[in-house]
Amino acid sequence: MRTRVIICMPGPNFLREKPTEKGYWGFVRSKKDYEYEKEKVLNEFKSLVDSLKREGYDIELLPHIEISCTDEGYAKVYKLSEELLEADINVVLPFSFHRPCIEAITALSKNTIIFDKFNPMYSGTLFAPPLVKEYEQYGFRNILIVEGNWKELKRIIRVVYALSKIRESRVVIVGPPNRGFGGLKTFKKNLEIFKFKPIFYTYDEFVELFNKLWKDENIIKEAKKIIDNIVKKAKRVVEPTEEKLLRATVYYLTLKRLIEDNRADWITVNCLSELIARTGATPCLAFALFNDNGIVATCEADPTMFTLHYLLTRLALKPAVFVDPTVNEGENILILAHCTSPLKVLGYDKPQVPYEVRTHHESNTGATVKPEYPKGIVTIAGFDFNLSKMIIVKGMAIGSPNLRICRAQIKVKVSNAHRVLENWQGFHWVYVYGDYVEELKILARIIRVTPIVIE
C-alpha cells in the first residue's frame, strides 16, 4: 500500500521572515513556524509508518507534496492528479484551509485523511468537520478527519491497508457460492464493493486434479512428510486413520496447486457437497495449514463472510478464525466452533497453540486440528446477508470446551449475550485475537455498513 503526505501551505503573507500581524485561524505566522512544524510532523508520520512496517504491514511512504493553498495554487492541484491518485491514502496537513484546494485534493484521492493537531493548532480543526459532513450527505465515506490522535491515524491506515489488499487479491473458488448464505446476490454485492478477482473451478475439475495427485508417488511422499510433521507436534491423534490423514493432505496439495497456478492469496471451497463422497475428505486440515501461512482460507464458499474473513486477517496481520456462533444467554457466553482453525492465532511469528488431530465432525472423514486456545481478548464480527450491517463483539476467550459440535471450539465471555442474540447477523462469523473494535467501526464507515457494537 502507498501513502503520501500532502501539505497545504499557508498563503505568502504567512510565510515571510517576519511574523505577520494579521490573524488567521491556525498557528502559522512566519516561514520559521512553517518550516519547523513541517519537519516535525513529517518525521512523526515517518515514525508511524516505520512502526507499521515493523508490525508487518507492507507500506510505502511516497515523497510528500507541498501545495500552496491559494487561488493561484488551486489551479495547480489538478496538475498533480497522477501523483494524488498514485497513493492509496493521502494524509492532508491543513496548515491553511483553502476549501477549493482541499476539495480538489479529496476529489483526486482514493482515500483522504485530514490530519489536524492542537499543539500547535491547525486551521482544519475549525473548517474540516463541516466539509466532511457535507460530503457524507453525498455518500462519500472515504474522507476522514483525525484530530491530533496518532493512534486513530494508525487504525485508519490498517483498515485502508486491508481494503487495498482485497482489491488486488485473487480468490480461488471451488464450486458455486453457497446459496444457503446469500448466494450469488451477496457474491455480486461483494464483488462490486471490494473489486477482487475470482477464479472458479468446478467440482469435476477439482476431483480430476485430486485423483491425478492421489496416483502420483511423489505427491504421496510429500503428503506423508506433511502428515509426519503434523502428527509429531500434536498432543494426540484421535479418530483419523492413516488413509484419512493421507486423503486430507492430498486435498491440501490439490488446493495448493490451484493457488500457485493462479498466484492467489485466498481460497474458498463449497465443501459440504459432493466433494466429501468423491474425495473421502474435507478441506479442514488444508485450511488450517493455509491460514497459518498467510493464505486466507474460508469455509463453505460463504459469500457473506468470505470478504470479512479476508479483511480481518489483513487488518490484524494474524489469522482470523471462521466459525459457527452459538449463544449461552444465562452465562453471557458465546461458543464459537468450526472444524478448521489456524494454530498461530496469536500471530504468524508466534508458536502454534497445542492441538489434537481429529476428523471432520459431521462426516467423520479427512482430518483437522482441535486447538487449545489461549485466554485473551478477541474481536468477533459478522455481516448480514445483504452487507448492510456488521455485528462487532469484543469478548474474553476463557477456554476450549469439548462439546459434540465442530472440533475447534472456543468459549468467549461477553458483556451482554442477550444483545448479541437480538442483533444477530448472517450465519457464520469470524474472530481474531486482540481488540480491533475501532478498526472495524472505521471499516464499516468506509464501506457504508451500519456497525452494531457490543463491548
Give a brief outline of the structure.
With 455 residues, the protein is α/β, with parallel strands linked by helices. 40% of the residues lie in helices and 24% in strands.
Structural class: alpha/beta
Mean pLDDT: 95
CATH topology of the largest domain: L-fucose Isomerase, Chain A, domain 3
Radius of gyration: 25 Å
CATH architecture of the largest domain: Alpha-Beta Barrel
Helical fraction: 25-40%
Domains (count): 2
Give a written overview of the molecule:
- The chain is an alpha/beta fold and 455 residues long.
- The chain has 2 domains: 2-165, Rossmann fold; 169-454, L-fucose Isomerase, Chain A, domain 3 (Alpha-Beta Barrel), CATH 3.20.14.
- Helix content is 40%, strand content 24%.
- It contains 15 helices and 20 strands.
- It has helices spanning 31-55, 71-77, 81-86, 99-107, 124-136, 150-167, 183-194, 203-214, 217-233, 242-261, 274-279, 284-292, 306-316, 417-422, 437-446; strands spanning 2-9, 60-61, 65-68, 89-94, 112-116, 143-147, 170-174, 197-201, 236-237, 266-269, 296-298, 321-328, 333-338, 355-358, 368-371, 376-383, 389-399, 408-414, 429-433, 450-454.
- Strands 1, 2, 3, 4, 5 and 6 form a 6-stranded parallel β-sheet that branches. A 6-stranded antiparallel beta barrel has the order 12-13-18-17-16-19.
- A hairpin with a 4-residue loop joins strand 12 and strand 13.
- Helix 9 packs across helix 10.
- The longest helix has 25 residues, at 31-55.
- It is elongated.
- The mean pLDDT is 95.
